[in-house]
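Complex record, four chains
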Amino acid sequence: MKRRKRATAPQKRNADATRAKILQAALDEFSERGLPAASTDDIADRCGVNKRMIYYYFGSKEGLYLAALESVFERFVALEREIDVEHLEPAAAIEAMIDLKIDYYVENPHFVSFLAMENFYKARHLRKSKKLHMFKTPLTEVIARILKRGQSSGQFRQDVDPVDFYVSMCALCIMYFSNQHSLGAIFQRDMMSGANIERRRRTVVDFVLSYLQMTDGARTPAPGRKPARQAALVS
Amino acid sequence: MKRRKRATAPQKRNADATRAKILQAALDEFSERGLPAASTDDIADRCGVNKRMIYYYFGSKEGLYLAALESVFERFVALEREIDVEHLEPAAAIEAMIDLKIDYYVENPHFVSFLAMENFYKARHLRKSKKLHMFKTPLTEVIARILKRGQSSGQFRQDVDPVDFYVSMCALCIMYFSNQHSLGAIFQRDMMSGANIERRRRTVVDFVLSYLQMTDGARTPAPGRKPARQAALVS
DNA sequence: GCCCCAGTTAACTCCCCGGTTAATTAGAGG
DNA sequence: CCTCTAATTAACCGGGGAGTTAACTGGGGC
């Protein structure tokens, strides 16, 4: 009799529920303390599961970390895949994407933490992930289409590389959150107050649309612009 | 006879040299492995100094980390303090600041690492620093002056908050480097190739100047812009 | 030439933590 | 009701790493 399937009160002997509880606890622990400082004992305590279960389901601490990392990225990319802005005016579509990103960062600090952590460790684990190919953000293609629409209607400039543009948009959105603590400490501001977040949102939209709507070549070139200094660069 | 002062071959019994060697090793170790994974034994080995010396000079692993963090920030702020762009045209001055930042990030990955690490740990150590007040970047004032010049000559838009603007400029510059590994893995690009860095430099300058030179109100407002959603925000 | 202490050393302690062993039990299938 | 296995548990192990102890020494001051 498999009367109770799962989803009711998860008591004893429920593989999926146990796995899920561990994963959630890992998400919390890793994003709070970081990979090296996180302890498997604490993760087990957090979710009231025997430590051995971590090794039973995830093999090792690193295996658990990788699973947590993947789950965070999967959810993020899934959201970006859902967005539908094809029916919007190009400028409104760009704005909608910025809103999506900022809202996501506000509501999912776990993602911001994992991204920062993973970059600190040179994306060692991300690169190892078999799901890496799934993490290529679908937004670059959405952006490419929006840009094309905006360009053919004459609203947007012509010389925009979608990936490069995506990085810029992303930078304007995420850095405020990923660096909120140093910025907050140095400028003595509460970066997470509603008013400040809204101000940020407006600035980002303003920046991005200014760039896109700037007529090609209209920008005053700085006089005496020195050529790119390749010599100073590594590799 | 204090014949050899220091700076020649630093052999035995040289407090300053020992302290400096430890600090340098700490810089390397912490930025490579992170605060929790860094080991005092390894730091001692790295610079050929007895582990006890770390405790003699810095009190604890955390004390050493704080000293390293402060030294990294001090050097960064010192550089920003040195820059002189008052003689340049406003647009060229902005460009010079962007160049300064990008060059610095390219040449000082330690700074990028420490900044990311410190933010991951919610700026816990930075906030504890007695030198925190020294880390308020002098660039915001420089920026304020440049903006004023650009505004009175009619080249720049009027409604720009210096701190907000600084954050945006900084975001466009640093995120490319702080997130180089995840971006590189996902987009399969070598973010640190000379050509890609130069492309980045041009894009950032383009973004920032487009924003500043955008005539107030010239930007097409997106139709149907929904009002700011305060409700969705935390606190 | 001697004293004294800042600077240096090796050896040690203790505990935390990742991972393992082996025994135990819930419950599905026959 | 019995069996067999997936799931769960407690107890244990070994290594690494932060921090300490106490002995020692180079060299400046007198």
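Note: Confidence is low (pLDDT under 50) at residues 1-11, 224-235 of chain A.
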